[in-house]
Amino acid sequence: MTSASRWSSPWWLHATAIPDFRSEQGALARQNELTKPPGSLGMLEEVAIKFAAWQGQVKPQIQLPQCVVFAADHGVVAQGVSAFPQAVTVEMLKNFIAGGAAISVLARFHQMGLTVVNCGTAIPCEYLQGVIHRPVAAGTEDFSLQAAMTNEQAQQALDIGAEIIDQLEVGSDLFIAGEMGIGNTSAATCLAAMILDLPATALVGPGTGVTGENLHHKQQVLAASMRRAKEFVESPLQALEQVGGFELGAIAGAYIRAAQRGIPILVDGFIASTAALLAVQLNEGARDWMLFGHQSAEPGHARVLEALDAEPLLQLNMRLGEGSGAATALTIVKQALALHNEMATFAEASVSGQHLVSEAE
């Protein structure tokens, strides 16, 4: 499917939904009436108020969360930037659908829908049942030598994300994007560096476990890739074409489409946040629907979060991907909503609000 085949072009520029200001103000008023000093629950209060605005109700609930893992391979792996071979990507797809991956466990824990999408693996895997197959190509090209993808392929990747969001179960009220792809930390590093106009060496990290001389080699490869690509990049979409990945484009497209449909987004780690950065560059309205689950151990993640003016809920030194950090943070989100919805107000508990305010002071 190309961008022109289903959407008026370019669909990703269409307006996003507008959070409900009245519900936001109603939730804030409720927070100030709960039996606690105002602001004493910190970010938990902010989370509840955000969800009230997103859902258009003073007492929001998460009843049908969805996680979609987008998978693809990366040609730059040929340059020795990863500790694992590309065959692992397909092996992990099998693990996702068999229920053995970290995100599979967390999805069961949260009773969350889990969808796996093949956006373009190097090893054909269309025989795998339980996977949605939308391969753009058999992985990207080696972006140290040439553009990772064509303009048409970049748009196709965005379209995949939008299509998947439109296929989510009616009533889905939270979206988490996960990713899988050997080499995708390298792609995310270069994509973020290109958008932020930073050297790749300022963001590059171990990814799947590259250390020592191998990490130095990875830094050199990515720096050279940036030098090659920079002259061809004048827009966010061109950055995706030059150094991105099919799953990165699909996640960015999914984020934009979720924002257009008014579905709250809980963003995962470095790779997912880089896709969020791309999404916001393409459509700034997408940012209004994002909550950031955690700050990963990847050094580039802090720079991306700063650029997005994002304060993550957790910092646990995670760097797995798959949506696992966001799914872990979902527990905090659920607790925030439970506190907001179920705590007694001063009037209900016959407690003096002024007494609690005085204690806080």
Automatic annotation (TrEMBL):
Single biological process term from Gene Ontology: cobalamin biosynthetic process
Spans through the membrane: none
Pathway membership, UniProt: Nucleoside biosynthesis; alpha-ribazole biosynthesis; alpha-ribazole from 5,6-dimethylbenzimidazole: step 1/2
Residues of the active site: 322 (proton acceptor)
CDD domains for the chain: DMB-PRT_CobT (cd02439)
Molecular function terms from GO: nicotinate-nucleotide-dimethylbenzimidazole phosphoribosyltransferase activity
Record key words, sorted: Cobalamin biosynthesis, Glycosyltransferase, Transferase
Catalytic activity field: 5,6-dimethylbenzimidazole + nicotinate beta-D-ribonucleotide = alpha-ribazole 5'-phosphate + nicotinate + H(+)
EC number: 2.4.2.21
Superkingdom classification of source: Bacteria
HAMAP family the UniProt entry points to: CobT
Function: Catalyzes the synthesis of alpha-ribazole-5'-phosphate from nicotinate mononucleotide (NAMN) and 5,6-dimethylbenzimidazole (DMB).
Protein name (database record): Nicotinate-nucleotide--dimethylbenzimidazole phosphoribosyltransferase
